[in-house]
From TrEMBL:
It comes from Vibrio hyugaensis. The chain crosses the membrane at residues 45-62, 68-99. The keyword Membrane applies. This is TM2 domain-containing protein. Keywords: Membrane, Transmembrane, Transmembrane helix. The lineage of its organism: Bacteria, Pseudomonadati, Pseudomonadota, Gammaproteobacteria, Vibrionales.
Amino acid sequence: MRLLEPLEELEKKEEYLRQQVNTLPDEQRKAYFKELKLRLKDPDTYAALNWFFLGGVHHFYLGKYPLFIAELVLFVLGVTGLFLGHMSAGLIILLLVLYELPHLFFSQKIARQHNYEVSCEIYNEVRR
């Protein structure tokens, strides 16, 4: 994830990939779009999951299962600790919030970068 990459740079890479895909033979292009339809993630869904759900569900949506599990476990531990009166457990929650803030504000860009990487993988698979 490259949060500081300018959006224009990502758009240039996406356009270049589109041009490359258009040069594929019909059969490969058809296979590319068929696989792409199955594996692309909607940036709006990712953003909504990021805004409305706790515990890293947006990571699950992108298929980042270890990150989802780690974040969910830390969140549950932090909340449980707070309910049991361990005020230091609030530090876990605070660190999770600080970690998630960039994901929250750059969610559209993160999903587009994910889709670009998936598109490149599919393109390379189809070319073989």
